[in-house]
Specification:
Residues 45-55 have a biased composition (Basic and acidic residues). With 141 residues, the protein is mostly helical. The protein has one helix at residues 6-140. The N and C termini lie far apart (200 Å).
Length: 141
C-alpha cells in the first residue's frame, strides 16, 4: 500500500470526525424521534383520559339534571297531595261547623219553644190567680 502523505492523513482524520459526528447526529435524531413518539403517545393517552373525564363529567351532569327533574316531580306530587289533604280537612271542618250550627239552632228553637210554653203556662196561671183574686174581691163587697 502506498504511503499517504500528511495531508491525506489529516483529511482522513477530518472525514472520520465528520462521519463520527454524522453518526452521532443520526443517533441523536433517532433518540429524538423515539422520544417524540413516546411524548406523542403520552399526550394521546392524556388527551384520551381528559376526554373520558369530560364524558364522565357530562354523564354525571346529566344524571344530576335527571335527579333534579325527578326531585321536582316528587315535590310537585307531594305538594298536590298536601293541597288535597288541606282541602279535605277544610271540607270536614266546614261540615262540622255546619253540623254544630244546625245543632245549636235546634237547641235554640227547642229552648225557645220551652220558654214560650212556660211563658204561656205562667200567663195562664197568673190570669187564673188574677181571676180568683177579682172573684174574691167581688164576693167580699
Amino acid at each position: 500500500m502506498p504511503e499517504t502523505g500528511p495531508l491525506t492523513r489529516s483529511m482522513d482524520k477530518q472525514f472520520e470526525k465528520l462521519f463520527t459526528m454524522m453518526a452521532e447526529m443520526k443517533a441523536g435524531q433517532e433518540e429524538m424521534r423515539v422520544a417524540k413518539a413516546g411524548l406523542e403517545q403520552k399526550m394521546e393517552a392524556r388527551q384520551e383520559r381528559m376526554e373520558k373525564g369530560q364524558e364522565e363529567m357530562l354523564s354525571g351532569q346529566d344524571r344530576m339534571e335527571k335527579g333534579q327533574e325527578e326531585m321536582k316531580g316528587l315535590i310537585d306530587e307531594v305538594k298536590g297531595e298536601v293541597l288535597r289533604k288541606i282541602d279535605e280537612v277544610e271540607e270536614n271542618v266546614q261540615m262540622k261547623i255546619e253540623d254544630v250550627k244546625s245543632k245549636v239552632k235546634g237547641k235554640f228553637e227547642e229552648v225557645e219553644h220551652k220558654v214560650h210554653g212556660k211563658t204561656e203556662e205562667v200567663e195562664h196561671k197568673v190570669e187564673g190567680k188574677i181571676s180568683e183574686i177579682e172573684r174574691r174581691l167581688s164576693e167580699a163587697h
